[in-house]
Amino acid sequence: MPDLFSPLRLGPLTVPNRIFMAPLTRCRADEGHLASLLMAEHYQQRATAGLLIAEATMVMEGHSAFWHEPGIHSSAQVAAWKRVTEAVHAAQGRIFLQLWHGGRACHPELNGGAQPVSASPLAIANDTVHTPKGKLPYVEPRPLADSEIPAIIEGFRVAAENALAAGFDGVEIHGANGYLLDQFLRDGTNKRVPPYGGSLENRARLLLEVIEVVTRVWGGERTGVRISPLNGFNDMRDSDPIGLATWLAGRLNAYGLAYLHLMRGDFLGQQSGDIITPVRANFQGVLVGNMGYAPDEAHHAIETGLLDAVAFGTAFLANPDLPARIRAKAPLTPPNPETFYSPGPEGYNDYPVWRD
Fold this sequence. Notes:
Blueprint (H helix, E strand, L loop, with lengths): L7 E3 L2 E3 L3 E3 L15 H9 L5 E8 L16 H16 L4 E6 L16 E2 L9 E4 L2 E4 L4 E2 L5 H17 L4 E6 L4 H6 L14 H4 L1 H14 L4 E5 L13 H11 L7 E5 L12 H7 L4 E4 L4 H9 L5 E4 L1 H5 L3 H7 L28
């Protein structure tokens, strides 16, 4: 039976282990949403992962949600990301870029006063966003007109082309965690009428149309998709998350994806349930699990066939040599939340490697 250290085929790629680095937004981009040299060093340090999945990256100008997140919509951003991919490849690593649109999680103070867009005019409640003016509440988004949606899809297509030019090994479409594609997908935020609202198939239409254009650029075999049907982060909810995940798992088989990246739980603990079993039963490709896995649990999930790989988040953040530590059963360095989003190398590139 395979384990965490068994090679895994992802389309044309064979990765050396099943310990993936989950996408982690760290707000270390330079002005102009340019991937920084700090980021190149950060990902190179973690290149022993089976696969690095780079952080949420803006597919279109004017839709910032994190202030200092990277983008992939300009030639300068392509050049900046190329420094990252070259650094990773020099260390024999493999890296996918996460294509992302923040939707209602964006804020006018980060986008020249522009109102954010979403499926419906529902603001994120009971939370704030970091801006140059300090923490501010989220604002009510403007619902996208059906006639505007082709431009969003085209933004993802152009971003996919740019990621190819930047030297990535593939891309992951971010359909999780309450950002734009997820806002259309779940009925707690999508109150539209057809063709992009109502039935589950209509709510999934935007995600599927984005997958269509991205896979025309990359092929399905170099495209991953991330979903989080249970996660309440960003004030999200669905009336039937298990049904949503089950239907979507079967529907995604049509694309021959490199993988489906499934977040199994809810950061806020508001919704619960076994979402992995029905997805495993319905999805025929590589299934990557994420959210709170300890190494022993990850080993077991792969040995039993429940998952094909596990994406580690904060464990990889604080342990750049995570695969080596897991293999040696060495202690893991705890992360420092105070430096998750602060500028500079502290809490980013200064975590130690393990010495036997």
